[in-house]
Structures
1.
Amino acid sequence: MTTESAGTVSAELKAIVEALIFASPEPITPSMLFKLLADEPREDVAAAVQALQAEYDQRPGLQFVEVAGGYQIVTRPELHEWVRRLFHERSTQKLTVQGLETLAVIAYKQPVTALEISEIRGVNTSGVLSTLLERHLIKIVGRKNVVGRPFLYATTKEFLIRFGLKDLGDLPKIEDMAEALGFDPPGRLFEVTPREEMLPLGEDEAAATEK
């Protein structure tokens, strides 16, 4: 396969890249594209990605996004209500306000223990944490180096995907996220807390917490 001319992306290569991104169940990373298209020059693959991004900027229904370190083709936000009608049964799986508050605390304070989350929110969060773990929005990343060695929680790649973030650096201001999700952020969420030493999980614990 060759490019049609200098500076022009092959239509065939662009179609292949588009198909791979569309078919992938998770955001497909540049490294994965390079691996799958090992016979193609990397600069051609990168150019095909850029060409697709430019094309999708002009499409009214779908958009090309960079999320969780990879690429996805998704519906535009203004059309989500229509898509929800197609998958109406998923509406019962929406997070509660308690779940959203807990997820916000973890996102902005991670890594954080269950006790610290409860202190910030003012209520016990054990049940909510179980729900977030089941939905793969958070994970256990280690233990805090204090008496009792409590688990430390952090957000996952699934969290980035669900909220359309490239990485945690893309998190909006706390108040903006709370407004978008429809809840009032706990006051202590705005406090700056020092990072403490984190102990790694044992092999058995790490295996048990893998997604």
2.
Amino acid sequence: MQKTATLDKDIIPSDCGDCPIRHRAVCARCESDELHQLEEMKYYRSFEAGQTVIWSGDRMDFVASVVTGIATLTQTMEDGRRQIVGLLLPSDFVGRPGRDTAAYDITATTDLVMCCFRKKPFEEMMVSTPHIGQRLLEMTLDELDAAREWMLLLGRKTAREKIASLMAIIARRDATVSARTKAGRPVQIELPLTREAMAEYLGLTLETVSRQISALKRDGVIEMHGKRHVTIPDFDRLLEESGDDSDGGFLV
């Protein structure tokens, strides 16, 4: 595993109660005594954009929650071809209890902070604290639903809908988005992927990604500030462009 970056104390929560993902992560249902148990087995790791968190097949002696930042899950074929198979966003769980090695390459695409738990104590706590296991099961099922929706996106959506969908997925994971949209305020996001990585992830060419982003900008669906910063004036309109309705379901 590569050396981790220096931890920025300004973005590390002083305790679990101050954590920005507290109510969405695997520890969401923990009581104060259970949080204390987790405090004893946890530590933080920080990675700079572009750093590898772990390589597929490496021994993984921890599980973790993403606190801030975004990472990619990548699978490499025998002939060297690589495919991004998933994104890890804030509150997502990293690793699998009961599995000793990493199934995918994990790479930080932005500066990344993870709250890590030593695997063996965490697995023991899952047995003694059933609602941690229940919460992890819920998150796993949500991930399965997301994977099925992604199959639809890759197989049936147009290039324009794919780009809009990716932006909507990233925006929805920001806890402030719902409040902003209800207040009629624009939503702002930072794209975690380069256009080349977006093309790889969405099954498009680089030229198509650039062309569709330009079209969404020209039509007023998004505003671009530099290469990565996006303002979404009307989130419901972005959902319509993605093929989804305002409740998150797919339009038929």
